[in-house]
Design goal:
heterotrimer; A alpha/beta; B mainly alpha; C mainly alpha; A: alpha/beta; Rossmann fold; six-stranded mixed sheet; 20 helices; disordered N terminus; C: mainly alpha; 14 helices; flat
């Protein structure tokens, strides 16, 4: 893309303290000093953002990184005045291009939004109006700010779509969001945000809902935007995504910026303990065999308390030639799983990785015998599994368990933790109710939950705690294998680290096998002994985890690995201190 | 795959509506009292009124509301308040009876359709559509024309015509629960299907029904009294509320209380049931439910 | 139109016909199979007696012949269905005319009333929602409260009260019997208010849910003001459930029209069916019931089409 502006000198932003005026040859576009945002009224007031300061120049990119509840999104929204009526925004300075944003009226904000500041939300499927063609959405800021006439606006929309890399823009402009692929949708959303040529573009988790390969393309697009001289603020929980584009990175935790520096500084020499914890928690090729989190769950329990069911010598799961076809709403047959075979040994973790639509989830469900394959067979612990009648199979279901991505929807909304676990134990004989209750207690300890959690309902637990309950439930019947379907995808990085550590600990103690499904290459690489790569229902590549992901043989795998945003590690990097390479 | 944000929702305009439970609490208590009052009136009217609903007193014809006749008197000198109290029984009987019948039908139809799926679902769905094509009064009038007016006819007519709305709701609920994550998790644990239906599907699917049933009783009473208003209800001298309204129509200009008071009774009762229904809805949703 | 769409449209029409057939069948069997000796009931009715008097076969014979009661039930049924397909809904017991003729004379005012009530209900509901949804405690509570109360008002009671206030006391509108446009106002309002409350509750819930959606935030980030967001983005999403309910609502409106026509002494199908039910004129009542069902089924087809216009997501699936 040829930028039509001369790119401005890129300099790492510096922390702006009160009184320190750092005006270089180019003035700051955005200055924020001691921003405080709180919510509530007289009776209940909570501060969400505390003393946040940063500045940004044109052509620079600031990344604000943090987990949920860190206040990063709220900070971004103060820059467009969309924190809501119950919010109170105070700052020593909040200036865009020299103009203060404090105390702006409604009409002034409306003139600013879309024209001086562009905002891109995550997941274009819900961030665009489903019932309207995307062309209308893109034309909206033009219309609102009185740009051109209807005819010229139409042309501009097409031009914008072309600029963001949407092929056949005339046709696409008439389509609605659900008719476009994820990548095209996100591009359209970006087009709407930059339509009026704002100088500042804020992107709140712009790639979170996307596949890895598409994610890379969107990051390219954002990079081009930066090269055109716009200032960019990226909000993300994913450090790797951010490292490519960011000139400076601000790490937020609990409403404050705990560390602020260039990308290189943060990644090679993190100073704040939270930043270090965050970096350590990222699963990747280099974290294999190490703990991601600092918590130690408990000592020495495990096999003596929860003896595993006896198992045979051979593979726990053998799948051969699995095929599954579905008929789409348009009457066309789609082969969702196309001749997939694999085997899982005792105590091993087999990772299945692929993008959306690769068929990995369906394969897992065939392994669980929740879906019958159209062809092929699955054997569990050496005996027939997929071919059995449901009645015969039911008795053996205790040998294989499942942990879902969203534990909340896998719990009966009326039940509390005790009931959930008791229900899972129902297949076994217990001498007395007390014995059963004791076993529930053991399970809770096993996954690192406290006795006080027993009486709580799932809604009263955090995301990480819910997943622990789900793991406890999965282990209750003492299965030989647990199928984990994206078990950590919905969790924050630090929580994810804890849960992954827990899963590894449990595997060490109990010798249980995992069939681990994920789209996240880092997680897969960290967890798996062997890997299957799937695409469009077909098995692309298989082998040992390290080999497949560092020396891939197939084209698709190579592309997949290449798209992965890396915290590029230098030759003498260690797992504790990934070094950024310039 | 999205990162769950704990950031507070940033787009509430205006003050957030306090949980309706707090807002409605005085209203809910009042509604409960009204409902209780009328239920007592239905079961033991003598407790609430010492008079005789049929007692004619030609000296006190068409008296406006006063101390001795709280609702006034009608054209035969009968005390209106007493008649309203005694009329509660029939009206409530029809209301609760029709709703009960509708619920039984709806659970049978909707439950079967939702669980079975496929062809059975298609057939039952058509059946529900057919029932929908009989609006309440149409069916009731047909029954009255064929069988003659009576309490039983009214209950059956109103019940059958209310059923399809509930049936569709139940079917939707059953299907949603049947496809939910926790039902699949139960299957994965190895629980037999019958147990899954009884333990998970049925209780979860029926939950919103409690609320809807409360609202439905009020509606049924309104329709039943509508029939009486047309002169097709239970024959006089029954003090059923709709019949009172029919009788009061002629005296609108001379004795407005004859029309307004029974109407108020109906409105109050239906409104109280609605209030309680909505409060129940909020309570049930706010708990461990989602 | 593509082949898939044509096929689907055909299936829908077939489905509608199936429903109509089922209604007619049910009506026939209610009429015939369950009420004992129809000739006897007919004679009693004509004679004005309420007790059932024993009738000699000689008395019954001509009735049986005239109305075909002496034929086997299945034959009667087939003839009945055939008649309906031809547009012959039977003959009234008492008026000795074809049901269709009787109805067609009075159907206009009822249709006018029902349609205008539906339109009015939508207008009231939409205005109220756009103005009062999520706008601060009092306004929202007020709007919601109005809806709850409206939905619970019995139609006839409301009609009587409006009649007293506006027609009798204030003398703004005609009291009874008018068929002109002016005479339509009070009856239509009477029907519209409770329906607007009912539809309003559903739409309000949806409206408030949609206001939270991310695409609404997107619109605001582009500089859109609040009223514009409500009208251009949220409304279209929020009315979807109400559109679905409008099909059912039409059936309820027809029932309500019967009552309202009684209150305001308006001509219309309602009057016919009430007096027919009172005099046990079964063919007339059942003829009306079947006709209403046909109207209802057609209305639902139209509602389905309206829905896909508003929500194109369903068009391609």
């Amino acid at each position: 893309m040829t930028p039509d502006l001369i790119p401005l000198p890129v300099r790492p932003s510096e922390i702006v303290g009160a009184g320190a005026d750092q005006d270089g040859p180019v003035a700051d576009l955005l200055r924020v000093e001691n921003l405080n945002v709180g919510f509530g009224d007289r009776h209940r007031y909570r501060e969400i953002v505390r003393d946040v300061s940063f500045s940004l120049r044109a052509g620079e990119c600031l990344a604000i990184v943090g987990e949920s509840g860190s206040g990063k999104s709220v900070t971004a929204r103060t820059l467009v005045g969309l924190t809501g009526d119950r919010s109170r925004v105070r700052a020593d300075r909040l200036e865009l291009a020299g103009r203060s944003l404090l105390g702006l009226g409604d009409r002034q904000w409306r003139r600013l939004r879309g024209k001086d500041v562009g905002f891109v939300l995550q997941d274009a499927l819900v961030s665009l109006d489903q019932l309207r063609p995307v062309g209308k959405e893109i034309a909206e800021p033009l219309r609102l700010h009185g740009w051109g006439s209807r005819g010229t606006r139409q042309e501009k929309v097409i031009e914008l779509l072309r600029e963001v890399g949407v092929p056949e823009p005339e046709m696409r402009a008439r389509q609605r969001p659900y008719e476009l692929s994820g990548g095209l949708r996100q591009r359209a959303l970006i087009a709407a945000a930059i339509a009026m040529g704002p100088r500042l573009v804020i992107a709140d988790e712009p790639t979170t809902a996307l596949d890895v390969t598409i994610q890379a393309q969107i990051l390219d697009l954002l990079e081009r935007t930066k090269e055109q001289g716009k200032a960019l603020i990226l909000i993300s929980h994913d450090l790797a995504v951010v490292s490519r584009l960011a000139d400076s990175v601000a790490v937020m935790n609990g409403g404050e910026i705990v560390e602020h520096g260039t990308a290189a500084e943060i990644f090679s020499n993190p100073r704040h303990p939270y930043t270090r914890q965050l970096l350590d928690a990222i699963p990747s090729a280099h974290s294999r065999g190490t703990r991601l989190s600092r918590t130690v769950v408990r000592t020495g329990l495990g096999s003596s308390v929860v003896p595993l069911a006896p198992r045979g010598e051979g593979p726990v799961i053998e799948a051969e030639g699995l095929v599954k076809r579905y008929r789409g709403p348009d009457g066309v047959d789609r082969t969702v799983v196309d001749d997939v075979s694999f085997s899982l040994a005792p105590g091993e973790t087999l990772g299945i990785v692929g993008e959306s639509g690769s068929g990995k989830t369906t394969t897992a469900r065939i392994a669980l015998a929740l879906v019958a394959p159209d062809a092929g067979e699955v054997r569990l612990n050496g005996e027939a599994w997929s071919g059995l009648s449901e009645r015969r199979r039911r008795a053996r279901r205790r040998q294989i368990a499942v942990v879902y991505q969203d534990p909340l929807s896998s719990f009966d909304p009326r039940w509390n933790v005790e009931r959930i676990l008791a229900d899972a134990l129902d297949g076994e004989e217990y001498g007395s109710r007390a014995a059963k209750r004791a076993r529930i207690g053991e399970l809770l300890e096993l996954v690192g939950l406290e006795p006080e959690h027993r009486a709580r309902g799932p809604l009263q637990l955090s995301g990480g705690q819910r997943q622990r309950v789900a793991i406890a439930r999965a282990l209750a019947p003492r299965p030989a294998v647990v199928v984990c379907d994206e078990p950590v995808s919905a969790l924050d990085v630090s929580i994810q680290a804890q849960v992954l550590d827990l899963l590894c600990d449990l595997q060490d103690e109990l010798g249980v096998s995992y069939l681990f499904i994920s789209h996240d290459l880092g997680v897969i690489h960290h967890m798996s002994d062997r890997i299957l790569v799937m695409c469009d229902g077909r098995l692309i590549e298989e082998g040992e985890a390290d080999r497949v992901l560092t020396r891939p043989r197939e084209e698709y795998t190579k592309r997949l690995v290449a798209s992965l945003p890396q915290l590029e590690l230098g030759p003498d990097a260690t797992p504790d201190r990934p070094q950024a390479v310039a | 795959m999205s990162v769950a944000t704990a950031d507070p929702p940033v787009l509430r305009r205006g003050l957030e509506l306090p949980r309706a439970a707090t807002l409605l609490r005085p209203g809910v208590i009042l509604a409960g009292l009204v409902v209780a009052f009328f239920v007592v009136a239905a079961i033991a009217p003598a407790l609430l009124s010492s008079g005789d609903p049929d007692k004619i007193n030609l000296d006190a014809v068409l008296q406006p509301p006063a101390i001795d006749h709280v609702f006034g008197t009608d054209q035969s000198g009968r005390d209106l308040y007493t008649r309203v109290i005694y009329g509660a029984r029939e009206s409530l009987l029809i209301g609760f009876g029709a709703t009960a019948l509708a619920m039984v039908l709806a659970i049978a139809l909707g439950g079967v359709a939702g669980l079975a799926g496929g062809v059975v679902d298609g057939v039952v769905n058509r059946g529900i559509e057919v029932l929908f094509a009989f609006p309440v009064l149409m069916l009731a009038l047909l029954f009255v024309a064929v069988f003659g007016p009576s309490v039983r006819t009214e209950i059956i007519a109103v019940g059958i015509s209310s059923a399809p709305g509930y049936a569709r709701m139940i079917r939707g609920q059953v299907m949603a629960v049947r496809d939910s994550g926790y039902v699949e998790a139960a299957r994965a644990l190895g629980h037999p299907y019958g147990r899954v239906v009884g333990v998970h599907i049925f209780p979860n699917a029926m939950r919103p029904l409690v609320v809807v049933a409360t609202l439905g009783v009020g509606q049924s009473i309104v329709w039943a009294s509508g029939l009486a208003f047309l002169g097709l209800g239970v024959p006089p001298p029954s003090p059923e509320w709709g019949a009172l309204l029919d009788a009061g129509r002629d005296y609108i200009t001379k004795a407005w209380w004859l029309e307004v008071m029974p109407g108020l009774a109906i409105v109050l009762f239906a409104l109280s049931l609605t209030t309680i229904g909505r409060w129940l809805q909020r309570r049930l949703e706010g708990g461990t439910a989602r | 139109m593509s082949a898939v769409k044509a096929k689907r449209a055909l299936l829908r029409i077939l489905g509608a016909l199936l429903v109509i057939w089922a209604v007619a069948t049910i009506t026939f069997f209610v009429e015939a199979g369950l009420s004992g000796n129809r000739a006897e009931a007919l004679l009693n009715q004509m004679a004005g007696t309420t007790r059932s008097v024993e009738r000699t076969p000689a008395e019954l014979a001509p009735i049986n012949r005239e109305y075909g009661f002496d034929k086997p039930l299945m034959t009667q049924y087939v003839e009945y269905i055939g008649g309906i397909a031809r547009g012959d809904f039977g003959r009234s017991y008492l008026q000795h005319q074809s049901v269709l003729t009787i109805i067609s004379r009075q159907v206009g005012p009822t249709i006018a009333l029902t349609v205008s009530a539906l339109v009015l209900a939508w207008l009231i509901m939409l205005t109220r929602i756009v103005v009062t949804a999520r706008r601060g405690r009092f306004l929202t509570g007020f709007g919601s409260g109005v809806e709850i109360v409206s939905a619970g008002l019995p139609t006839y009671w409301l009609g009587v009260i409006l009649l007293v206030i506006f027609a009798i006391d204030l003398q703004i509108f005609p009291v009874q019997g008018e068929t002109s446009l002016v005479g339509l106002v009070l009856p239509a309002i009477t029907l519209a208010i409770p329906l607007s409350g009912f539809l309003g509750q559903v739409t309000r819930d949806e409206f408030e849910k949609v206001l939270e959606q991310p695409f609404v935030v997107s619109a605001r980030t582009r500089g859109m003001g609040d009223l514009a967001v409500r009208l251009r983005h949220v409304l279209r999403h929020a009315v979807l459930p109400a559109i679905t309910l409008s099909g059912w609502a039409l059936g309820a409106l027809i029932s309500g029209a019967v009552l309202v026509e009684a209150v305001f002494a308006r001509p219309g199908v309602g009057n016919i069916i009430v007096s027919a039910a009172q005099s046990r004129d079964v063919p007339l009542v059942s003829g009306i019931v079947v006709l209403v069902a046909i109207v209802y089924v057609i209305a639902n087809l139209l509602v389905d089409i309206a829905y896909t216009v508003v929500d194109p997501r369903l068009r391609s699936t």
